[in-house]
Amino acid sequence: MKTSFISNLSVQTAMRQTINQVQNELNQAQKEVVSGRLYNIGEELGATTTRSLDLHREADMMQNLVATNSVVTQRLSSSQMALGTISNAGQTALNTFVALAGSTDSTQLSTAVQTLTDVLDQFVDASNTSVNGEYILAGINTDVKPMGDYLTDETGARTAFDTAFDGYFGFPKTDPQVQGIDAAQMQDFLDNVAQPMFMSGADWQTTWSTASDTPMTSRISRTEVVQSSTTVNSSAFRGMAFAAVIGIELLNMPLNSDTRAIVSNKAIAAVGQSIYGIDAERGQLGLSENRIKLSNEVLQAQVDIVRLNLDDLEGVDVYEASSRITALSNQMEISYNLTARISQLSLVNEL
Questions:
Q1: Which has the closest alpha carbon to 150: 246, 86, 78?
Q2: How far apart are the two ends of the chain, measured CA to CA in Å?
Q3: Are 211 and 144 spatial neighbours (Cβ–Cβ below 8 Å)?
Q4: Which residues pair with 218 in a beta bridge?
Q5: How does strand 225-227 pair with strand 217-219?
Q6: 3-state DSSP call for residue 209?
Q7: 317, 301, 299, 234: which is closest to 32 by C-alpha?
Q8: What is the pLDDT of residue 92?
Q9: Less Cβ crowding at N or C end of the chain, within 10 Å?
C-alpha cells in the first residue's frame, strides 16, 4: 500500500477558492432578493434577452413622455393664468369704454385713460410671462421677450403711432387743430391707418412683437402632438393692444362728441372681439390639458403592462432566493470552520 502526501497549504488554497465562489453566489442572491430581478439577465435568459431589452426601452420611453408631459402641463397652466389676466384686463377696458357713453367730462375721460393705461400694462406684463426661463406666449421664440413697454416706447410702437397720426392729419396730437377732426376723418384714420398697424403682420412685428407666429407644440404620446402655448401674434392680442392704444392716445383729446364716439365704438368692437379670441385660445389650451391627462393615464397603464411582462422575464422567486442565501450562508460558515481547523494542523504540534 502506497501513501500519498497532500500539503495543508494546497488544501487551504482550495478552501479559499471555494469560499470566494460561495461569497460571489451569496452576493448575487442577496442582490436578487433586494431588486427582485435576475442578477445576470443575459446568462439566465439567453436568446430572450433581446425581448427584455426591448421592454426596458419601451418602459423608459413612456416614462420619459410622462416626465415631459409634466413640464408641458406647467407651461399650459401658466399660459392659462396669463390669458386669464389678459381676458380680465380686456373686460375692464370694455367696461371703461361702455361707461363713457359719449361723456365729455374731462375728469371722467382722464380716469378712463388712466384705467386703460393700467390695462395696457397688465396686458404687456402678462404677455411677457416666463416659466423656467421660457417666454410662454412668444410662440417658438421662447428665448426672446415678446413685447416691449408701449408707454416708454421701448420698441418704437408709440413713435410709429404718433408718426402715423401726423402723416394722416398733417399735425401732431397736441395741436389745437385736433378739435376740427370730424367723425368721418377719424373713422377713416382708424380703419385704414391705425388698425392695419396692429392687424398687419409686418407692422405688428416691426414695432410691437418679437414673437413667432408659430405656437409651441409638444409630443404627449407616441402619436399625439398638442398645442402647448399660444403667441401674442394672434389677432386677439393685436386687437387688445389696438383698443387700449386708441383709448389712451385719442379719448382725452379735445375732440367733438361725435368724433370721440367713433373712437369709443371702434375700441368697443375691437376689445370685444379680442376677449372672445382670448377665451377661445384658453379653450384650445384647455383641450390640450385634458388630452395630456388622458395620455398620461394611457401611458401609465402601458408602463404597468410592460412591467408585468418584465417581471415574468426577469423576476425571481424571492422565497427561493432567500432559501438559497440561507444555504450559502451555512456553507460559508462550514468553509470558514474547516479553513480554521486546517490552518491549525502542524507537525510541530505533534512533536
A1: 246
A2: 25
A3: yes
A4: 226
A5: antiparallel
A6: strand
A7: 317
A8: 95
A9: N
Q: What is the pLDDT of residue 170?
A: 92
Please count the CA atoms within 13 angstroms of the CA of 91 that sit on its side-chain side: 8
Low-confidence ranges of the chain (pLDDT < 50): 1, 5
| DSSP code of residue 193 | I
Beta partners for residue 226, in sequence order: 218
pLDDT of residue 60: 85
- Amino acid identity for residue 53 in this structure: L
Q: Where are the domains of the chain?
A: 56-304, 317-351
Query: How far, in whole angstroms, is CA 212 from its chain's centroid?
Result: 17
- Assign domain 56-304 one CATH number from 1.10.1840.10, 1.20.1330.10, 1.10.357.10, 2.130.10.10: 1.20.1330.10
Give phi and psi for 176, each to the nearest 5. -60, -20
Distance CA 24, CA 36 (A): 18
Distance of CA 38 to the CA centre of its chain: 38
DSSP secondary structure string for all residues of 115-152: HHHHHHHHHHHHHT-EETTEETTBTT-TTS--B--TTT
Residue 267 parent element (H or E): helix 257-314
**171-182, pLDDT tens digit by residue?**
998 888 989 999
The CA-atom distances, in angstroms, between 285 and each of 34, 69, 228, 276, 288 are 44, 14, 7, 14, 5
* Total residue length of the chain: 351
pLDDT of residue 282: 93
* Whole-angstrom distance, CA of residue 154 vs CA of residue 334: 85
How far apart, in Å, are the Cα atoms of 44 and each of 29, 31, 323? 14, 15, 19
